[in-house]
Design brief:
It is built from seven helices and six strands. By secondary structure, the protein is α/β, with parallel strands linked by helices. Strand 3, helix 4 and strand 4 form a beta-alpha-beta unit. The structure holds farnesyl diphosphate (FPP).
Length: about 240
């Protein structure tokens, strides 16, 4: 049920979040970076539940970027363990809440154990009709676009397609997010004002919202603030506001 604070006609269909600040949160609490990521994982659980309750259709979470592979091996390992545990432990809960799990990114690069849990959870929840939880894993916007271009070029060379048929729709239909609406609202935590290679093509007309809260502190209340701000904005999609001349 949408929260009564919101205009039910202006609920963002797709919210995408750059979850930043686990490390700084940990430092501020005198904890290890691993503990920061664990606290971030707890927040993921809460925000997924809340988005389902508020009638959001798609929640994309930037859980691991293609650039994150360059972090120290110990940290990459800890993040992959956390991901595997999350996928294992949350499967029933996601299913009970009618959440469908999806993933975007270069999934081939994930360690086997995490990939296996991901595949099991995606299959297990594939018939669910509520919130789509879309995890961006080993994801980079440029990497995604390069894969699409290679795919299209291949089809042209093989004669299955003419270059003139490469339209925005043809590109959208081959992105990892094919079939999903573009994000309406992109949130970044921890005060940074960067896109960081996230949903580069899909973000064309998204509203951006930045908060100084570190991801482990990004409560449902913080999400409510972001949605309220989104509802105050006028989206013009490059045109004029209605009534404007
Ligand atoms: C940014 O914090 C966060 C990440 C690189 C990974 C996000 C992962 C989680 C929230 C936890 C696990 C996710 C799931 C789906 C279970 P940072 O380390 O860049 O923080 P910093 O910039 O303060 O150092």
């Amino acid at each position: 049920m949408p929260d009564p604070r919101f205009d039910p006609d202006l609920i963002p269909r797709h919210i995408a979040i750059i979850m930043d600040g686990n490390g700084r949160w940990a430092k501020a609490h005198g904890l290890s970076r691993r503990k920061g990521h664990e606290a971030g994982g707890e927040r993921v659980r809460e925000i997924v539940r809340t988005c389902g309750e508020w009638g959001i259709q798609v929640l994309t979470l930037y859980a691991f970027s293609s650039e994150n592979w360059s972090r120290p091996a110990m940290e990459v390992k800890a993040l992959m363990f956390l991901l595997r545990d999350y996928l294992q432990q949350e499967r029933e809960e996601l299913n009970k809440n009618n959440v469908r799990l999806m993933a975007i990114g270069n999934l081939e690069r994930l360690p086997k154990a995490a990939r296996k849990e991901l595949d099991i959870s995606m299959e297990y929840t594939s018939k669910n009709t509520g919130l789509i939880l879309n995890l961006a894993l080993s994801y980079g916007g440029r990497d995604e676009i390069v894969r699409v271009v290679q795919n299209l070029a291949g089809d042209c060379v093989e004669g299955r397609m003419r270059p003139a048929e490469i339209t925005p729709e043809a590109i959208s239909n081959r992105l990892d997010t094919a079939g999903l609406p573009d994000p309406d609202l992109i949130i970044r935590t921890a005060g940074e004002m960067r896109i960081s290679n996230f949903l580069l093509w899909q973000a064309s007309y998204a509203e951006y919202y930045a908060t100084s809260a570190f991801w482990p502190d990004f409560s449902s209340e913080e999400l409510a603030k972001a949605i309220a701000e989104y509802q105050r904005r006028t989206r013009k999609f490059g045109g004029l506001e209605s009534g404007e001349e």
